[in-house]
C-alpha cells in the first residue's frame, strides 16, 4: 500500500482500538455489576476487573504497534534530511463524513504529518506503560465488598470511620480507554471541529479520572475545578472557532493552512482574534497562567493518571494544538504565547520549589515545563517546543510513575515524611534519578552527550538567545527561561534529596518496600525514552527533532515581523542555528542547571533540611492567595448570577414570560372556546371564512388592478 | 370512431398507463378480494388482515418495481389520455403512502381495531381512501383532482365513525362529512370557474392558457378586469378545498373534533396519509397551473436568450404567482400560530396531536410558498423547496405514526387518553414511553431526530427565497417552534418525570405492539442521524418539478 493509504489505515486502527475496549468494558462492566448487586457502582469481582484491564491494555498495545508501524511507514516515505528541507506534504483526508449542513462539512478527518505520527507514538507508548503500571499500583482496587473491601481514609463517612467500598479497577480501565481514544482523536484530527469535539472529550475523561476517588471531597472538588477552569479557556476557543468560520468558511486544516497567507494579508485583525481565541483554549488545557490552578489540584486522581493525563499527554494537548495551528498564528499572537509561557514557567518553577507535597512539586514542574514549550513555540521554535513536548512526556511520566512507586510504598505524598528511601527502593531511586537528570537537562555541551532533556532544553534556549539578540527590548524572554532553569534544577534536586537521601523521617518510610515488577518494568521503558529520546539513530541523521523538522510550518523557516507591533521580529531557523547562538545557549543552559543543583544542595544541606528559604510565605501564596483569586472570581460570578437570577431573571424575564404565557394561554383558551363542537357553527365559520378570504383577496386584486 | 377508441385503449391504456398503475390496480383487486372473501363460508374463516397485508405489500412491491432504476431515471409521462401524471414525485409520494398503508394494516390488527369478524369493513375503507390518495398524488387533470379528493375523503368519513356505538365517534364522522361536503362544494365551484375561464381541464394546458392570458396586460384593459377578479376568486376557492384537506386555517375546525372522536389509528391515517396526498396535490397544482418561464419559452422556440432574459424579470404569470404566494404564506402563518396556541391548553392527547397536526400543516405550507416564489427565477431552487416539503412529510410520517400508535397502545393498556394519565409511563411501559417521547421531540424538531432535518430544509428554502413574505414566515416558524416546546415537552415531562399512579402495575403492551412501536420509532432516530439518503430521495423526487 502507498503511504497515503497505509498511514491513515494504521492510525485509524490505533485510534479505534481504545474505543472498542471502552465499549466492551462499559458493557461488560455494567452487566457484571448488575449481576453482583444491581445498583449503580455495584461490585465487579476481581478476576473480571483484571480481565477488563487486560482487554484495555491489549487494545492500547494494538494502538502502540499500529502507531509505531505508522511511524516506520512515515520514515520510509520521508528519508531523513538536515532539517532545512521544505516541509513534507501532510496526508490529509477523511475516513467518513458525519455532518453536512449547507457549506459546513464535518467528518472524521485526519491530518497526518510528522508531528501526528510522533505524537501518536508518544501517547500510545506512555499510555501502554501506564496501563501496565496500574495493575500494580491499583492492585487493591480488585477487592470485593465485605471484609477485604478497599478502605479509603481520606473519604468522610457519616460515622467517622473509614469508608469501605468495593474496588473499581474496571472503571479505571474503562475511563483510561476512553481517554486514549479521545487523546488520539485530538492528535489525528483533520479539522478544527473534530479537534474541539475530542478536546472536550479528553476534558470529560480527565474529569472522570481525577474524580476516580469520588468519595474524597478533595478529588471531587478537584475534578470540578479542572472542568470549570477548562470551560473558561474553551469559551475563548469557541470565539476563535467562530472567527475562524467567519474568516475562512471551513474548518479543514489542509485548506486553512493553504489559505492562511491570504487572509493574513487581508484580515490581519480577525486572524489575530482567531489565534488568540484558540490559544485561550490552550491556556486552559495546558494550565498556563492565569488558568494554572487546576493542575496541582488534579493530583487528587490516581498517580498513573497524573503521569499519563496530567503530565505527558492531555496537558500537552494545548502545546500540540498551538503547534498544529501554527500557520494560522500571527506574530502578535506568538509573542503573546511566548510571554504567557515565560510567566508560567517562572510561576510553576517557583511554586514547585516550595511545596511539601511530592505530586504537587511534580505538577508545578509540569506547569513550568509546559511554559517552556509555549515559550519556544511563541519565539518561532516550532521544532524545539514540540521536541521538548516529546522528551518531557518521557521524563515526566517517569518521574510521576516513580512518585507513584514511592507513594505506593510510603502511603503519603508528604516529602517531610520520606527520606532515605534509596536503600529500601534502589530501583525506583535509580529510575527517578534518570528522570530528574533528564528534567534538569544534564549533559556535556562540548561532546554533545546528554539525556533527552538536555537536547530539547538546549534547542529552546537557542531560540531564546536568537530572539533576545534580534529584539533587545524583549530580552526578558531570555532571562525568564534562564532563571527558570536554575529553579528547575533546584526543585528537582530538592525532591530527590528529600525523598531518597538522608534518614527516614517517618515510620512508614523506614519500612518501605520496593514496588512490584509490573510497576518497575513500565518505568524502565519510559526511562529509556527519557534517556534516548534526544539521540539520533546511530549511523543516520534520523532523530526526533529531525523528524519533527520535516513538518515544520513554512513560517518558521524565515524571520517574521509583526504588523501591529512592528518592533518584534521572530527569528527564523537559520538565525537560531548560528554557531555562536548555539554555543551561548548551551553554556547558559548548563550553567543555570549547575547553579541550581549547587544551590539546592547547599540550601537543603544534602537532604537534612526540608524548608526552602521563603518557603512558608510562598506556600501561603500557593495554597491560600492563588485559590482566593479563584474564589474572588467565584464570588463576583455568584453576585452576578444572583443578580441575573434574581431581579433580572425572576423579576423582569420571568415576569415578562409569565405575562406572555398567561396571554398565550388565554388566547389558547379563546381558540378553544371557538371550538364549540357545534356543527352548525363550524359550517357557518366555513362559509364566513370563504367569504372573508375571497373578499380580502378580491380587494387585493382590485388594488393591484387600479395601480 | 370505434377503431380509434380501440387503438387508444390498446396503446394508451393497456400499453402505457396500466403497467404504470400496478399499485393502484393491486389496491382495487385487494378491495374486491376483501369483499368477496366474505361470501363463501370456507373463506370466511380467513382473517382479513392477511388479505389486506398481502395486498398492501404487493402494491408496495409493484411501486418499488416502478422505482427500479432510481427515482432520477423516471421520465414524466401522462397516463390515461392526460388524466394522470407519472413522474418521480408521484412514485415517491405513493411509496410513502403505501409504506404507511402497510404500517397501518399491522397497527390496526395489533391494537384490535380491525377484528377478525368485521376487519373487512375497515380494510376496504382504508384501501379505498389510499386509492383516492394515490390518484391525488398523480392528478394531472381537474377531474382527477376532484375525483381523488372525494375518493380519499368519503371513506375517511366512515373510518372516523368505524367504532360503532360510540356517540362521539359518530358525531365526529357526521361533522367531518358535512364539513367535507361543504368544502368540496366550494372547491368544485372554484374548479368550474377555472375551467370556464381558461377553457381547459388539463392542468398543463391550464398553465399555458394562463401564461397566454398575460394577466399583467389585462389589468390595463378596463373591460377585462372582471376576468382577473374571477381568476382570483377561482384560485381562492380551489385553495379553500386544499386548505380543508390540509386542515389549514381558517378551515381547520373539523380537525380537533374529528381527531378526538376517531380512534387513534384513524387519526394517524388522517394526519399522515391524507396530508401527504394533499401536499403533493397542492405541489402539482402550483407547479403545473402557475406557469414558470421555461415551459412557455419552450413553446415559443427560436427567440432565444433575449426573450429568456426578458422573461426572467417577470414571467407572464408573475401577478398570479405573487397572489398565490401571499395566500399560502398567510394561511401558513395563521395555521401554524393558531395550531400551536390552541395546543398549549389541551389536556387530551388526541386533541393535542390534532392541534399539532394543524400546526405542522402550517410548517409544511411554508416551503410551498417558498417554492412558488422561487419558481420565477430559480427553478432548481424551487424544486429544492419542494424537496424540503417531501423530506418534512416523510419524517412526519414516522413521527405521527409513532405518536398515534403509542396513544393507541396506551389506550389499550391504561384505558386513558388524557395527558395526566400518562404520568410515569417510562417506568411501567418503557418502550411505549420512549417511542412516544421520541415522537414528541421529533415533532418539536430537535436534532438529531428526523423532524429537525425537515424543519431545517423548510427554513432553508425560506431563506433561499427571501423577500418580505418569507422573512415573515421565517420569524413565525421560529417563534412557533419555541412555542411548541412548551406542550411537547410537557408531555415528555409527564411521561418521564411524574410519578406513576399508585395502582399502575406492569402495563406493557403485547410484544408485537412493542415491536411495531420500536420499528416506527427507529427511523426517527436513524434517519435523524443519517438523513442524507432520505434527503437525496426527496431531492430526486422533486427534480425538475418546476422546470
UniProtKB/TrEMBL annotation, chain A:
GO terms for biological process: ATP synthesis coupled electron transport; electron transport coupled proton transport. The lineage of its organism: Bacteria, Pseudomonadati, Planctomycetota, Planctomycetia, Pirellulales. One of its GO terms (molecular function) is NADH dehydrogenase activity. GO terms for cellular component: endomembrane system; membrane. Its EC number is 1.6.5.11. InterPro entries: NADHpl_OxRdtase_5_subgr, ND/Mrp_TM, NU5C-like, Proton_antipo_N. It is an enzyme of class 1 (oxidoreductase). It is found in: Endomembrane system; Membrane. The chain crosses the membrane at residues 12-32, 52-77, 108-133, 172-190, 196-214, 235-253, 265-284, 305-327, 333-354, 361-383, 389-410, 431-456, 476-497, 518-537, 584-603, 682-705. NCBIfam families: NDH_I_L (TIGR01974). It is a multi-pass membrane protein. The keyword Repressor does not apply. The gene is nuoL. Residues 99-141 form the NADH-Ubiquinone oxidoreductase (complex I) chain 5 N-terminal domain. Residues 189-467 form the NADH:quinone oxidoreductase/Mrp antiporter transmembrane domain. This is NADH-quinone oxidoreductase subunit L. Keywords: Membrane, Oxidoreductase, Transmembrane, Transmembrane helix. The keyword Transmembrane applies. PANTHER family: NADH-UBIQUINONE OXIDOREDUCTASE CHAIN 5.
From TrEMBL, chain B:
It is an enzyme of class 7 (translocase). It is a multi-pass membrane protein. GO terms for molecular function: NADH dehydrogenase (quinone) (non-electrogenic) activity; NADH dehydrogenase (ubiquinone) activity; quinone binding. Keywords: Cell membrane, Membrane, NAD, Oxidoreductase, Quinone, Translocase, Transmembrane, Transmembrane helix, Transport, Ubiquinone. It catalyses: a quinone + NADH + 5 H(+)(in) = a quinol + NAD(+) + 4 H(+)(out). It is found in: Cell membrane; Endomembrane system; Membrane. GO terms for cellular component: endomembrane system; plasma membrane. One of its GO terms (biological process) is ATP synthesis coupled electron transport. Pfam families: Proton_antipo_M (PF00361). Residues 139-289, 323-478 form the NADH:quinone oxidoreductase/Mrp antiporter transmembrane domain. Its EC number is 7.1.1.-. The keyword Membrane applies. It comes from the Bacteria. The chain crosses the membrane at residues 20-37, 49-71, 91-110, 122-139, 145-164, 176-198, 227-246, 258-283, 322-345, 352-375, 387-410, 422-446, 466-489, 515-534. The keyword Acetylation does not apply. Belongs to the complex I subunit 2 family. NDH-1 is composed of 14 different subunits. Subunits NuoA, H, J, K, L, M, N constitute the membrane sector of the complex. NDH-1 shuttles electrons from NADH, via FMN and iron-sulfur (Fe-S) centers, to quinones in the respiratory chain. The immediate electron acceptor for the enzyme in this species is believed to be ubiquinone. Couples the redox reaction to proton translocation (for every two electrons transferred, four hydrogen ions are translocated across the cytoplasmic membrane), and thus conserves the redox energy in a proton gradient. This is NADH-quinone oxidoreductase subunit N.
